[in-house]
Specification:
The complex is a heterotrimer of chains A (409), B (255) and C (307). Chain A has helices at 2-24, 40-63, 79-95, 102-127, 135-153, 157-179, 184-204, 206-209, 239-243, 249-275, 278-288, 290-295, 300-326, 336-349, 354-370, 375-392, and strands at residues 25-30, 33-38. Chain A has 409 residues and is mainly alpha-helical. Chain A folds into two domains: 2-72; 79-392, ABC transporter involved in vitamin B12 uptake, BtuC. Chain B has 255 residues and is α/β, with parallel strands linked by helices. Chain B has a domain at 4-81 and 172-252: 3-Layer(aba) Sandwich (Rossmann fold), CATH 3.40.50.300. Chain B has helices spanning 44-52, 74-79, 97-104, 113-118, 121-141, 156-168, 186-202, 214-220, 238-243, 245-252, and strands at residues 4-15, 18-29, 33-37, 59-64, 67-68, 82-84, 174-178, 206-210, 223-228, 231-236. Chain B has a six-stranded mixed beta sheet, with helices on both faces. In chain B, strands 2-1-4-5 form a four-stranded antiparallel beta sheet, with helices on one face. Chain B is globular, with a radius of gyration of 19 Å. Chain C is built from eleven helices and four strands, in the order H-H-H-H-E-E-E-H-H-H-H-E-H-H-H. Chain C has helices at residues 4-36, 43-61, 69-96, 105-126, 154-176, 178-188, 190-195, 200-226, 233-248, 253-273, 279-293, and strands at 131-132, 140-145, 148-153, 228-229. In chain C, a hairpin with a 2-residue loop joins strand 2 (140-145) and strand 3 (148-153). In chain C, helix 5 runs antiparallel to helix 8. Classes of the chains: A mainly alpha (409), B alpha/beta (255), C mainly alpha (307). At the A-C interface, helix 1, strand 1, strand 2, helix 7 and helix 14 of A face helix 2, helix 3, helix 4, strand 1 and helix 9 of C. Chain C: It is found in: Cell membrane. Chain C: Pfam families: BPD_transp_2. Chain C: The chain crosses the membrane at residues 20-39, 46-65, 71-90, 102-122, 154-174, 203-226, 281-300. Chain C: This is Branched-chain amino acid ABC transporter permease LivH.
């Protein structure tokens, strides 16, 4: 008990030292001078909390230890009911936007974009075990490919979409090729470097990319070639004119959402199939033991490249859609923080678990919107959550039993 | 008529100041079981790693069926038909037993992205074949009942068998076993001896073996090379090697 | 006399003072990586916190009170070092120590989270905007070479001098003290050192603390030289310092020093002679190139993978 108290005292003092210069003494400018405004109550409160935690809460916790690690298994549904479930969920997702307001549908579209991105990174990090901290770079490539194709050649969304994915995939291949034989943490830093290089290039190649201002006026996807706008450009018919409907902005929002849903479902389908294919098994084997893989004739670089490229392609599609939704792109949207956010989605959801990634995308996108009052603290909490997750549940919130091939006896 | 499959000449491996392997020379015929023995630290596993492409030998020529493979990366060597097991079993512990065997067939399976996504008949056939092969080997090794269990959960002896099955399913020409008997009980060792012999006879594969268990080595090998301090002391048939005074000295020290 | 030589000397000086800062931060990365094989992603934030603590201390003392400037700076440095020592120790104990021994991705992600947390911890506490730092050391040494004048601001000369002194002290300490010897043993073979009775946890904490203190010095000095800071300076500085550590050979302290200087020079020369817009890309590109072609760096030993 005494040692607990002693440790707690030391911890409290340390907490005081940590809190004081940041929260305890606010630097305030007054004219040419700066002076300090002490807020000792914050410091004392922090110290007290730490003291109590270390002295009483933690030891009690340790006693009540229950480190059970149950893998969460979805209730096993047979094939018919599973298919019914999926149809039901898709039906709900399709109908729902017609019954809610604009803000909700807007957020949902953002969620779907992050689902796409999360599934893409899930393949790279969760399956192939490659820590890619520059994922945002591929996202940016996809977005800018569409933006540039529109700006310089007048392309529409649907024409640009496959190219956006292809460009991002190409970047993934070219960047991955030299880099994938590096060890885990080095790979992380190098990919981070690449992400930053892409962002810096976008800022600096002013003539080509519009520099820090970016490119604006990017059109939304058309409906079978008909733009969904209030007033059609010369010689074209808008979708609403064609249908004989009154133009309503809400329709655009819903259409965007539905298109995002389609893309997300395609992404989900591909991701789902791929992990059950030989290449998916190879990714997992590679993550487990690269040397064993090599001894069996598997080429680790090629296998990693396929994961990297596929993830990049998904990011490219997501990027193109992001450009369409925002209507503009600029380098500001593609910082390292974005990569960290997508990584957090994958990590929170349970690396390798697709359902987990989808849920995490929802949580991490909706929560900040809902908790607007805490906007200041948002990033702080975000960082803290990442640390806490690693300490408490590194497998993610919803680790699933691996989908695996079964041999019927 | 048996011909030379693997030929190793003038193999040396230097790690900084340490000369781990010095002037090793041997060959393995395509129908024989060849063992490398010697006291600990003799450089046996280093030889394996050089042959397998995990280390780049400092000097030396290694050919497989006449084709030079020294300096080739390990996965390419494996594709030449040379696979190995490891001293500490390297299974994919979190994958199932079955999946271990499926991954090993990667180079023979249809890995086309489009066919996989669309589940074309060609893809389905390839998967079924792979499953059938795996089932065959599971039966052969007597571990079929564990097919859907995580490989890490198997009993040690079964893990060893799985590792060998995983090698065999790649259809190798030369199987390299790194201390396959380590940690096995006497009955399991007898089974292993039988297994090695059976593999050699029924599956047209040569076996290169590192092992410490003398009765196993003497019982199953056609020829043996003895190493000490990175150098070969002698090479010959079991009876010769067993009675060679140099070999006895290497193991037991000066009398 | 052409402009070339004086220009060169000027850029050399600039690069040296920049490199000194990188070296100070890089040592933290290299020491930690050398012992536990982990990239301390949050290290750049410690540098930033050092700068902020320096500013707080300065504000507490008050500019223009009777105290001589060198004394003020010394106090700033000492307080910053002490506070960041606590930060370094706490971050390691809270976010890294419990995760040792698990899969490598986990502590790395924890470090990233820590980095984001600390950036915003300071942003919430002191404001996310740029904050001005009073100029304590003004004036510069002017050297005339022919028609041209080379300007060496005293604040920058101070950076170089302090860094050299600290490097020397660190070198002596690591070489001759018990703690230093134990550190070297740990960075060679952690498990063995443990088996030999060295308290590896203590050594690891020591490593984090020393790295933090050096980074803090860098933070205070650069804040004084540049005249402003914000909570996000740690990110870029951290990556560049890591590049320096890798360039010199990760795990090697002399390597970090060398790498820091080289990177500072490379970046300055690139900014002066190629384009100042792309100078950040220099660091990143250098990082990628080194890791591709010589991952062990200039002073590191090539590693052989044990099978």
């Amino acid at each position: 008990m005494v040692s607990h108290i002693k440790n707690a005292l030391i911890a409290a003092v340390m907490a005081g030292v940590i809190i004081a210069p940041v929260f305890g003494l606010q630097i305030v400018r007054s004219g040419m001078q700066t002076h300090l405004e002490p807020e000792w109550d914050m410091v004392l409160m922090g110290m007290a909390i730490v003291f109590v935690f270390q002295a009483f809460v933690r030891p009690a916790f340790v006693k009540v230890m229950g480190r059970g690690e149950r893998k969460f298994s979805m209730p096993v549904l047979n094939d018919t009911s599973r298919r019914a479930m999926i149809f039901l969920l898709i039906a709900i997702a399709l109908i729902w936007p017609f019954f809610t307001g604009r803000a909700e549908v807007d957020i949902a579209t953002l969620v779907l974009i992050y689902v796409m991105l999360g599934l893409g990174l899930n393949i790279v990090v969760g399956f192939a075990g490659l820590l890619d901290l520059g994922f945002v770079g591929f996202y940016a490539v996809g977005a800018y490919t569409y933006a540039l194709l529109y700006h310089w050649a007048g392309w529409g969304f649907w024409e640009a979409l496959p190219l956006a994915g292809a460009m991002a995939g190409l970047f993934g291949y070219l960047l991955g090729f030299p880099v994938l034989r590096l060890r885990g943490d080095y790979l992380a830093i190098v990919t981070l470097g690449f992400g930053e290089i892409i962002r810096l290039l976008l800022i600096n190649l002013y003539e080509f990319t519009g520099g820090p201002d970016g490119i604006s006026g990017i059109p939304k996807p058309t409906v079978f070639g008909m733009p969904m706008v209030r007033r059609a450009p010369e010689g074209e018919t808008t979708f609403h004119e064609f249908m004989g409907w009154q133009f309503d902005n809400m329709d655009v929002i819903i259409y965007l959402y539905l298109m995002a849903l389609v893309l997300a479902l395609v992404t989900l389908f591909v991701s789902n199939r791929v992990i059950r294919m030989p290449i998916g098994r190879a990714w997992e084997a590679l993550r487990e033991d690269e040397i064993a893989c090599r001894s069996l004739g598997l080429n680790p670089t090629n296998i990693k490249l396929s994961a990297f490229t596929m993830g990049a392609t998904f990011a490219g599609f997501g990027g193109a859609f992001f450009a369409a939704r925002q209507g503009l792109v600029n380098p500001e949207s593609f910082t390292f923080l974005e990569s960290a956010l997508i990584l957090a989605i994958v990590v929170l959801g349970g690396m390798g678990s697709q359902v987990g990634v989808i849920l995490a995308a929802i949580v991490l996108t909706v929560l900040p919107e809902v908790a607007r009052e805490f906007a200041e603290y948002r990033m702080m909490i975000f960082g803290l959550v990442m640390v806490v997750m690693m300490m408490w549940r590194p497998q993610g919130l919803l680790p699933m039993k691996r989908p695996h091939v079964e041999l019927k006896q | 008529m048996s011909k030379v499959l693997l030929q190793v000449s003038d193999l040396t491996m230097r790690f900084g100041g340490l000369l781990a392997v010095d002037g090793v020379q041997f060959d393995v015929h395509d129908d024989e079981v060849f063992a490398i023995i010697g006291p600990n630290g003799a450089g046996k596993t280093t030889v394996f790693n050089c042959v397998g492409g995990f280390y780049k030998p400092t000097t030396g020529v290694i050919t497989m069926d006449g084709k030079p493979i020294h300096g080739m990366p390990s996965h390419k060597v494996a594709r030449e038909g040379l696979v190995r097991t490891f001293q500490n079993v390297r299974l994919f512990k979190n994958l199932t037993v079955l999946e271990n065997l499926l991954v090993a067939q990667h180079q023979h399976i249809n890995t086309n992205l489009a066919s996989g996504l669309l589940k074309t008949p060609a893809f389905r056939r390839s998967e079924e074949e792979a499953l059938a092969n795996a089932a065959k080997w599971l039966d052969f090794m007597g571990i079929r009942e564990y097919a859907n269990r995580e490989a890490g959960n198997l009993a040690y002896g079964h893990q060893r068998r799985l590792e060998i099955a995983r090698c065999m399913i790649t259809r190798p020409r030369l199987l390299m076993l790194d201390e396959p008997a380590a940690g096995l009980n006497p009955q399991e060792k007898r089974d292993l001896q039988q297994l090695i012999d059976q593999l050699r006879r029924e599956f047209d594969v040569a076996v290169l073996l590192i092992e410490h268990d003398m009765s196993l080595v003497m019982g199953v090998s056609d020829r043996i090379m003895v190493m000490e301090h990175g150098r070969p002391i002698t090479t010959g048939v079991p009876d010769e090697v067993r009675t060679d005074p140099r070999v006895i000295k290497a193991y037991l020290g000066e009398d | 006399m052409s402009e070339f030589i004086p220009q060169l000397v000027q850029q050399f000086f600039n690069g040296l003072s920049l490199g000194a800062i990188y070296a100070l931060i890089a040592i933290g990365y290299t020491m930690v990586y050398g012992i536990i094989g982990m990239i301390n992603f949050a290290h750049g934030e410690i540098y930033m916190i050092g700068a902020y603590v320096g500013l707080v201390t300065l504000s507490a003392i008050g500019v223009g009170t009777g105290l001589p400037v060198p004394l003020i700076i010394l106090i700033m440095l000492i307080v910053a070092m002490l506070v960041t020592a606590v930060y370094g120790y706490a971050v390691e104990k809270v976010a890294y120590a419990p995760l040792r021994g698990g899969p490598r991705l986990v502590p790395l992600i924890s470090a990233i989270g820590m980095s984001i947390f600390l950036q915003n911890w300071v942003a919430v506490g002191q404001g996310a905007r740029d904050m001005a730092v009073p100029a304590l050391v003004t004036g510069a040494l002017q050297v005339n070479i022919g028609d041209y004048t080379i300007t060496a601001p005293y604040s920058r000369i101070m950076i170089i001098l302090v860094t050299v002194v600290l490097m020397f002290m660190l070198h002596m300490y690591i070489k001759h003290s018990r703690l230093g010897r134990a550190s070297r043993a740990c960075s060679q073979d952690l498990r063995m050192a443990n088996l030999l009775g060295i308290d590896t946890n203590k050594i690891i904490s020591f490593t984090f603390v020393v790295g933090a203190m050096l980074a803090a010095v860098g933070g205070v000095l650069i804040a004084l030289a540049i005249g402003k800071l914000n909570p996000f300076i740690g990110f870029l500085a951290g990556i560049k310092a890591f590049t320096a550590a890798v360039l010199g050979g990760i795990g090697s302290i002399p390597g970090a020093m060398l790498g820091g200087v080289l990177l500072g020079l490379a970046e300055t020369f690139a900014a002066a002679y190629i384009s100042s817009q792309y100078k950040d890309i220099v660091a990143f590109s250098l990082l990628v190139l080194i890791l591709l072609f010589r991952p062990t760096g200039l002073l590191g030993k090539p590693e052989v993978e044990k099978v």
